[in-house]
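Bit of a strange request maybe. I'm writing a small parser for structure token strings and I need a real example to test against, not something I typed by hand. Could someone generate the tokens for this chain?
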Amino acid sequence: MFKNALIYRIEHWDQPPLAEIQDRLSKSPFVECGQTQPESAGWVAPRGDKHAPLAETVAGQVVVKLCIETKAVPGGVVKSQVQDRLDKIEQETGRRPKGKAVKELKEQVVHTLLPRAFPKRADTLVWLDPAARIVWVGAGSTKRADAVVTRLIECLGGALKLGLLQTAQSPAVAMSHWLAEKEAPRAFSIDRDCELKQPDSEKSTVRYARHTLDIDEVGEHIKQGKLPTQLALTWNGRVSFVLTEALTLKKIQLLDVVLEGAGVDAAQSGKDDAGFDADVAIATGELRLMLPDLIEALGGLHERQAVAATPERTTARPAAAEPA
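Reply from user aminoacidic:
Good idea to test on real output. This should exercise your parser:
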């Protein structure tokens, strides 16, 4: 389901029925950019079939997908045409436009060139886990994830309020401890990829790729003040990912033991309705079990989120999802 993900806690949501969610999303469907429109965003069917529902539920998990299309004009082309127009105006009037006039001229150039710009699309999958009070957004950056979350809140109703997952211990501090002590947290193993960065103006960086990290050299970098910004981990030999200092999960991968145990043919996975349901059930089932262990490894929820959580919203390990 996800290559990358940011995780949000549901701080409040009076969850409406699925039919109402579907109705709300259908009021903001994806429509291609118009000729002079730089960006368009809207909801598409998670199954990939344009006639399928915009909201799917599998084993109690709700899945939606946002499509964003952008059209951009190369900056060099815009700059060149703006300069040409400025030169022409100066020749005709004896005065060269400045300030606001230049800005308006640039906007005119972009507006003229947009119809010839090639559109670029990006889909972002969103998984809502109402029972665990968690939302997973399939994005690799906070900026992109926040843009998706903003549209999600606008559409879903129920006074939905989300907050980026925060833990008692920052990932950078926790990863430093694991590497310095050469000991992974419970249920995890440390893999062979890591990035350490000096938190100063020079930002000197050391990267290890496909290299054992159980060496004194890594500890020396940490003693010198470098902090891990990325660290590859594997959970229970089932899910591998890279944890970042911003608590983003990147390069998420379900390992062969998961797919073999579920009897999934990777070549056919996701190619039909049954494949979609199986993919969702397997991925959500694994990630729902992994997340509480990750939160525990990072010291539990941040105090503010821990206090806000009701007994139903704790990080207690939820039951695994069953394929529909």
